[in-house]
User: Fold this.
Amino acid sequence: MNKEPGMTLIVKTVTRLTVGIILMYGIYIVLHGHLSPGGGFAGGVIIALSFVHLMLAYGKEAALKKISLPVASVLESIGAIMFISIAFLGLLGGYFFFHTLGTGEPFSLFSAYTVLFSNISISLKVGCGLFLVLVSIALAGKEKKK
Amino acid sequence: MMDINLILILMIFGSIIAIETKDILSCVVVVGVVGLFQSLAFLVLKAPDLAIVQLVVEILSLVILLRVILRKEAPEPQHHPDYFPMVVGISLAALVLLFVYPIIHELPEFGYPIMRVAKEYIETGMKATGATNLVSAVILDFRAYDTLGEAVVLFTAVCGALIVLRKTGRKKSGESETEA
Assistant:
């Protein structure tokens, strides 16, 4: 058996070709969440899945080299703080979560700014949170086996 | 509405197979198939947002389940043929169906009467928020409180998972393991 962690050469080659496409598709789903089906939650899970894809094919260290645990946890907290601050920005217009950022022109990418920024913050939260859970499950299993 | 009936029948068959099969790996695979049919059902019922979320979360949970299954040798399930719960369940389902059957035809058509709240959202949603995807407009603008609660639930779940599965800070004071 080969010494290096991860799966076989076929899986690694296919992963190298597809992982970027999956990540870009997740970002597309997030950014177009106010125009087409999708949104922050689905896009965040797809972004997490691209890193999980990398983790399954190349081993945990390759995925942790791309985005380490402290960075992921800080990004998740940034997502939560962003969502709360969007909610408090609404107080300028009178209500919690009021859309004070303007609506923009419908059917264009930069419209409905409240929804757009909420989608981005939720995708950060969901993606980094699920990635953290999966990595911690993998690390805990590894420790127990020793 | 023929498609949704076919999908539901296939889902019920898949669930029965998942319960009754002996091999735990094929059980997990069949559970994944049931989830994919669930996603198709959402698509047929014209909820593409939900279909995407269902598909993606199903794949994620399938990855976790497969990792757990492939790593650990699961004990062989002991199969005791016990027919009493099955008979009780089937008879209860038949009883409920007997009473519900006359009402089924009285139900309104799917999505036909637009409720007052939904009507308000549909009419003013695009103008007020600027988002052309009304589902996003509702969950992130009109009902963003619910999304905030959902985000708090997810945050709590991630915190709980990280606390339970953490690697450092678990050693007793006497031990001197250097492995972090």
